[in-house]
């Protein structure tokens, strides 16, 4: 019963097999290998973006931080949700790779930026001219940190606000496949057609060993990103092992099939929790994460039974009244089983 994160799941068998196959023989280094070129072409095809610049890195933090460094100056600010991953979970990496740019936090329910709040934040920034941090870029996350999903229409509205001020848009897609699995739209409709200038497409949380693609829809910015990636220490020499993962992941519908399974398991878990007296959902379950409030006594039963997940936020205490609700995050993955969920729900019900 491990719902701690989709990062805790193993690697999909197809990805492991592809890594073994890529290990045979020799191949050019630093991304000049045939697998990397094939990944570039596949992503261009999937995203209906024949001239997009495509680069692979090993972590989501590297992808996001380098993308922010590409899109804003050191004296700029990155407008993002208050609970965005780049704000709460990347140890200042975006500030580091931008050379010191600020993050301006924008409010919005259930992890989604409120358009009016974004407009106000942009309007308020740079009002003192040279004395203030300047407007830099907007960063959106799909799936959000609350497990919710932006529709293409919602993305277009926020991107439209950004572009009206001349600001580029970064899309953190660490769980982009899960968003697509929910939306049922095309990758293009959920990215550049919705206003994203750069997408960080995540494979690590959805069956890969460790690979993310930075998709830059304006290819003229590609060379600058290449230099940043090398200077930042994120250009892999044995690059074929990144490419092998993403190529098989994007072959056919594997990436979407894995995401659909994770989403379906979360829906099963969410429905089961909602049916238990004393339990409630904190955010709508729209992808592969469930945010729920459970009585402290129920948490204790689950933890005693070996269930692994996180109280969310993490500063809540297991000491206190038995019936007091504590919020938690439970994340399903491509490897989550119905049996795991049913066992969890059995312990929850007592």
Q: Could you tell me the radius of gyration in angstroms?
A: 21 Å
Share of helix among residues? 25-40%
Terminal CA distance reads 16 Å
Order of helices and strands: HHEHEHHEHEHEHEEHHHEEHEEH
State the shape.
globular
What this model shows, in words?
This protein is α/β, with parallel strands linked by helices and 350 residues long. Helix content is 39%, strand content 16%. The strands form two sheets. The protein has a seven-stranded mixed sheet, with helices on both faces. Strand 8 (280-281) and strand 9 (289-295) form a beta hairpin. Helix 3 crosses helix 9, helix 8 packs across helix 11 (254-274) and helix 11 (254-274) runs parallel beside helix 13.
List the helices and strands and how they pair.
Layout: H1 13-22, H2 34-46, E1 53-57, H3 60-71, E2 76-81, H4 85-88, H5 93-97, E3 102-106, H6 115-124, E4 134-141, H7 152-164, E5 169-173, H8 176-183, E6 198-202, E7 212-216, H9 222-231, H10 240-249, H11 254-274, E8 280-281, E9 289-295, H12 296-304, E10 310-311, E11 325-331, H13 338-349
Parallel strand pairs: 2-3, 2-4, 4-5, 5-6
Antiparallel strand pairs: 1-7, 6-7, 8-9, 9-11, 10-11
Helix pairs in contact: 1-10, 2-10, 3-9, 6-7, 8-11, 11-13, 12-13
Features of the shown structure:
seven-stranded mixed sheet, 350 residues, Aspartate Aminotransferase, domain 1, alpha/beta, 39% helix, globular, Aspartate Aminotransferase, domain 2, four-stranded antiparallel sheet
């Amino acid at each position: 019963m491990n719902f701690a994160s989709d990062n805790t799941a193993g690697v999909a068998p197809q990805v492991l097999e592809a890594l073994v196959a890529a290990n045979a023989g020799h191949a050019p280094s630093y991304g000049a290998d045939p697998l990397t070129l094939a990944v570039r072409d596949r992503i261009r095809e999937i995203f209906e973006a024949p001239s997009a610049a495509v680069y692979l890195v090993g972590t989501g933090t590297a992808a996001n931080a380098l993308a922010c460094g590409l899109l804003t100056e050191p004296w700029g600010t990155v407008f993002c949700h208050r609970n965005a991953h780049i704000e709460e979970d990347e140890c200042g990496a975006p500030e580091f790779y931008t050379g010191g740019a600020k993050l301006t936090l924008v409010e919005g329910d259930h992890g989604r930026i409120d358009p009016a709040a974004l407009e106000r934040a942009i309007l308020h920034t740079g009002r003192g001219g040279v004395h203030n941090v300047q407007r830099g870029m907007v960063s959106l996350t799909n799936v959000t940190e609350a497990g919710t999903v932006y529709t293409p229409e919602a993305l277009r509205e926020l991107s439209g606000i950004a572009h009206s001020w001349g600001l580029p848009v970064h899309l953190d897609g660490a769980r982009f496949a899960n968003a697509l699995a929910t939306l049922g739209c095309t990758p293009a409709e959920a990215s550049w057609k919705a206003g994203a200038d750069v997408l960080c497409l995540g494979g690590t949380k959805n069956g890969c060993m460790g690979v993310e693609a930075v998709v830059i829809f304006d290819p003229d910015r590609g060379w600058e990103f290449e230099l940043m990636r090398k200077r930042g220490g994120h250009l892999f020499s044995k690059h074929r092992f990144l490419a092998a993962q993403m190529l098989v992941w994007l072959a056919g519908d594997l990436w979407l099939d894995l995401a659909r399974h994770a989403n379906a398991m979360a829906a099963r878990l969410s429905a089961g929790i909602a049916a238990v007296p004393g339990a409630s959902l904190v955010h709508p379950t729209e992808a592969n994460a469930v945010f729920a409030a459970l009585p402290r006594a129920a948490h204790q039963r689950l933890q005693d039974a070996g269930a692994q997940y996180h109280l969310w936020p993490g500063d809540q205490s297991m000491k206190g009244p038995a019936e007091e609700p504590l919020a938690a995050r439970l994340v399903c993955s491509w490897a989550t089983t119905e049996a795991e969920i049913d066992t969890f729900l059995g312990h929850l019900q007592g």
